[in-house]
Amino acid sequence: MVKKNACVFISGNGTNLKSLIKNSRNYNFPINIKLVISNNVDAKGILFAKINSIPYLIINTKKRNYENLILNLIKKHKISIICLAGYMKIISKKFINEFDKIIINIHPSLLPKFKGLNTFERVLKNKEKKTGCTVHYVNEKLDNGRTIVQKSFFIENDDEIKSIKQKTQKLEHVAYAAAIIKMYRNN
Ligand code: GRF
C-alpha cells in the first residue's frame, strides 16, 4: 500500500499523536506521520515526535505570517492530510483553501453537541446520558465539518469530569485510527 504523508498538529499532551504514530507502524494503516506542528513550546506531545525521529516545528503564532511558514513546510514534506489532535488554534479559511487537501479533527463530544471548549463540564451540567468523541472533516466553521466516525459511551452516575475525560480519550485513540482507515478504505 502506498501510504499518504500526514502532518499532525498538536498543542498539549499528544496522546492522539502517540496513538497515530503507533497505528502508522502497521503496514496496512493508510498514513505515515511525516511532520508534527506544535504551537506550544511546552507541549508534552513534542516528545513523541522526538523519540520517533519525526521532524517537528514549534510555531510562534504571534508572527503574522505563521500559517505561511506551516504551508511551506507542509509542501516540502509532500503532506496530503493534516490531522488536528488537540491543536488549540483556529485554522484560517485562507489556510484551508491554500492547503486544498484533507484536514480532519478530533473533538471530545458527540458533535453537533458541545462544540468548542470545556466539553466535559457542559456534558455533565446538561445531564447527558451519553457522550463520546467525533472525528470530522475541518471546514471554516469551528467543529462543524462532516462526521467521519463517532464513538460513544453511557455516562455512569458516579462519573465526574476526570473520569469522563479519561473514558473519552481512550475512545478517541480508537476513533481516530478508525476514521483514517474508513477514509482511505476504497483507495
Ligand atoms: C483531545 O481530547 C481532543 O479531542 C481535543 O484535545 C484533546 C487532545 O488530547 N481536541 P491529546 O493532546 O491528544 O492528548
Secondary structure blueprint with pairings:
Layout (H helix, E strand, L loop, with lengths): L3 E7 L4 H10 L6 E8 L7 H6 L4 E3 L7 H11 L4 E4 L8 H7 L2 E6 L11 H7 L4 E8 L9 E8 L6 H23 L4
Parallel strand pairs: 1-2, 1-4, 2-3, 4-5
Antiparallel strand pairs: 5-6, 6-7
Helix pairs in contact: 1-6
This protein binds 5-O-phosphono-beta-D-ribofuranosylamine.
5-O-phosphono-beta-D-ribofuranosylamine (GRF) binds next to helix 1, strand 5 and helix 6.
Characterise the protein shown here:
The structure is a single chain. The chain has helices spanning 15-24, 46-51, 66-76, 93-99, 119-125, 161-183; strands at residues 4-10, 31-38, 56-58, 81-84, 102-107, 130-137, 147-154. It has 187 residues and is α/β, with parallel strands linked by helices. It has one domain: 3-Layer(aba) Sandwich (Rossmann fold), CATH 3.40.50. The radius of gyration is 16 Å and the shape is globular. The chain starts with a strand and ends with a helix. Bound molecules: 5-O-phosphono-beta-D-ribofuranosylamine (GRF). 5-O-phosphono-beta-D-ribofuranosylamine binds next to α1, β5 and α6.
